[in-house]
Amino acid sequence: MSLFNIEIPSVSWDDVIHWFTFNPKEPLLFNSALFLGLFIVFYLFYILMRKTFHVRLLYVVLFSIFFYYKSSGMYFLILVGSSLMDYYFAKIINDTLNETKKRTLLTVSIIVNLGMLGYFKYTNFFLDGVNFFAETGFHIDDIILPVGISFFTFQSISYIIEIYRKEIEPTKNFLDYLFFISFFPQLVAGPIVRAKDFIPQIYENIKVTRDNVNEGLLLIVGGLLKKAVISDYISINFVDRVFDSPNSYTAFENLMASYGYAIQIYCDFSGYSDMAIGIALLLGYRLPMNFNVPYQSTSITEFWRRWHISLSTWLKDFLYITVGGNRNGSFGGFFFPSLFFVGVLGWGIYYYKTSAIPLLIAIGSIIVFGVTILFSKERKKSLFTNFNLLTTMLLGGLWHGASLRFIVWGALHGIALAVHKIFMELFPRAKGKEPSFVWKVMSIVITFHFVTFCWIFFRARSFDTALDIIYNIGKIDWDLHAWMVIIDGYKNAFLLILIAFVWHFIPKKWMEIPHQLFNTAPVFVKSVFLGFIFWVVYATATAGPQPFIYFQF
Question: pLDDT tens, 134-144?
Answer without folding.
Answer: 666 666 666 67
